[in-house]
Amino acid sequence: MEISSLKNIPYSVLDLATVLDGYTAADTFKTSLELAQQSDALGYTRYWFAEHHNMAGVASSAPSLLIGFIAGGTTRIRVGSGGIMLPNHAPLIVAEQFGTLASLYPNRIDLGLGRAPGTDQVTAMAIRGENFNSAHSFPRDVDRLHQLFSVDNRYSTVRAIPGEGLTIPIWILGSSTDSARLAAEKGLPYAFASHFAPAYFEQAISIYRNNFKPSQFLEEPYVMACVNVVAADTDAEAERLSSSVKRMFLGVITGKRELLKPAVENINQHWDQLEKEAVEQMLYYSFIGGKDTIKQNLEEFVSKYGVNEIMSTSHIYNHQAKLHSNKLFAEVMN
């Protein structure tokens, strides 16, 4: 009897707090809570939010607030950031915020860190001001966070209260090879954004594994891959539902970002051949189909890359269809 390579792999959710056409951010937060509660019951390991700014269709500009909201409405699942864009914030403020979250919800909070601005350059300037080039301080700021969380920091002039002495797992996020080297050097778990940056995935995780240095946080490399998932009862229905995420990425490459649109019967009416190829390249690591199709493709993916954890993100307009997709994906992973 064949033993699924997915059996012992943790599975998690990345929620971009996508705003649907015809709805508001307040509606998004309600449906996020429902999805998180379902994920909690279905055995998902984590539920993460990403930091984005100045995007009409993405309501996760304040992930630490959303993490508290979701953690308060769930019981078991780990809740965290995928990620906090650290150059946008002083490490002390991040330490205090996540120290507060970890005090409220012990052993359930993750802190994923990225170095990108999570927005356009003009908005990044508005956020960072004179610290516009602070991405170069990212490695030092990661060290500073570890120091602020340490027990030894109680002797320092500047302390994170709460935060000091708490165990809050720090992850390094990446969409290129730079963060892979940093995660390896620091001996930290590595989460790659293969759901929108597939080009560097293979190279980045290879660099991470080949250069990994064991640390007090992690003895061996740990890779989490974030992928797009649209699951349905049939391959045809999943393809139809996936037209929403394809139109969303079309907006990214054309610069015409909109709220998430309902599924359409014929996606080819909405793009030309070059646009189609560009979108499909960005969505290369997407698992779209019925359970059997997704299971086969996901097993091939896990076998090829040996990832330790899968994080799914699902841009599906119909909320009931999204909940159903989330349920089917859990069944595939089990």
* Total DSSP helices: 12
The helicity comes to: 40-55%
Number of strands: 9
CATH architecture of the largest domain: Alpha-Beta Barrel
Strand order within the widest beta sheet = 1-2-3-4-5-6-7-9
Quote the average pLDDT: 93
* Helix-strand category: alpha/beta
Enter the CATH topology name of the largest domain: TIM Barrel
Strand content: 5-15%
CATH H-level superfamily of the largest domain: Luciferase-like domain
Largest sheet: 8 strands, parallel, barrel
Q: What's the gyration radius in Å?
A: 19 Å
What pattern of helices and strands is seen along the backbone? EHEHEHEHHEHEHEHHHEHEH
Pick out the low-confidence regions: none
Query: How many structural domains can be distinguished in the coordinates?
Result: 2
Task: Determine the N-to-C terminus distance.
Answer: 16 Å
- Output the CATH class name of the largest domain: Alpha Beta
Shape: globular
Question: Would you give an account of this structure?
Answer:
The chain contains 12 helices and 9 strands. The radius of gyration is 19 Å and the shape is globular. By secondary structure, the protein is of the alpha/beta class. It has 2 domains: 7-168, TIM Barrel (Alpha-Beta Barrel), CATH 3.20.20.30; 225-334, no CATH class. The model has no long low-confidence stretch (mean pLDDT 93). The two termini are 16 Å apart. Helix 1 links the parallel strand 1 (11-15) and strand 2 (46-49). Pfam families: Bac_luciferase. One of its GO terms (molecular function) is oxidoreductase activity, acting on paired donors, with incorporation or reduction of molecular oxygen. One of its GO terms (cellular component) is cytosol.
